[in-house]
Amino acid sequence: MLTKTPHLFDDATAVTAGDSRWQGKTSDDYWAFVGPFGGATAATILRALIDHPQRAGDPLALTVNYCAPIAQGAFDLDVRLVKANRSSQHWSVEMTQRGGEVATLATAVFAERRPSWSHQQARFPDATPFEQTLPYPKTAASWVKQYDFRFVEGEPKFGTPSSAPPDAYSKLWISDRVPRKVDALSLTAMSDAFFGRVFHAKRELVPFGTVSLTTYFHVDAADLAAEDITRVLAAADAKIFHKSYGDQNGELWSPSGHLLATTTQIAYFKA
What are the E-state strand segments in 119-169? Predict the structure, then answer.
């Protein structure tokens, strides 16, 4: 059953409108080990854009560069419409704290999605149903406790030695712990909800942080309303870990088999 009270995710990503400068604050409920959960930060930025009176269309792409550690507390969002035409809008957003220090730098593209020829090349991953997949135990990070992770394949095996080559692939169901209808904001956060691929490959927690995250949206608000879902099937993998940086790529699927979003990121690690 969907909650009828304000959802913690909506509280965590709430923004207050201004002229060009909007305000928000970090949430202890979506805190990682040394800072806020990057997916919540990205969703907060997207919320400011979706709520902006000049916004037209639906999110098509969002890139967030995490420039500096985000401190606990309030922040400002400097929102600017860079370019607009009949079909698309290009936005930039700077998150600042502590007297104007830039913490994140984001760009976004919104587009009017019109009916067209459609073809989904990607294939829906085989998976056991959500209800038949065991929940992953909660961990220390508060943001993890806000999600229900159910691994179909590639569950983290921390502290378990392996003679096989490292494998970073995972397939899992992701849902808000308190069910919430999936929209563009939750898709954004879930696109960063995969555990660090280096954790899977190394089978241990190592210092880690996202440097740049990009999410591509393949559906609009009407498509998501028609799906009417509270969970997604996610697949995540990595191609390389080298000289302190590694990539991560992922797919988010509706239970009915529609590809909702794809994502890629580059992350720092120390191992």
Answer: 147-153
Among 141-145, 217-221, 245-249, the range scoring the smallest mean pLDDT is: 141-145
3 state SS of 50: helix
pLDDT tens for 45-63 read 999 999 999 999 999 999 9
Mean of the per-residue pLDDT values for the chain? 94
Residue 142 DSSP label: T
What residues does each domain of the chain span?
A: 8-112+128-269
Q: How far apart are CA 136 and CA 139, in angstroms?
A: 9
Place of tokens 């995540």: 236
DSSP letter at 137 equals: P
C-beta separation of 108 from 93 below 8 A? yes
Tokens of 135: 């929940």
What does the block give as tokens for 85? 């035409």
Does 2.40.160.210 match the CATH number of domain 8-112+128-269? yes
Exposure class string for 100-130: b at 16+ Cβ within 10 A, else e = eeebbbbbbbbbebeeeeeeeeeebeebeeb
pLDDT tier, 2 (very low <50, low <70, confident <90, very high otherwise): low
Which residue is associated with the tokens 């996610």?
A: 234
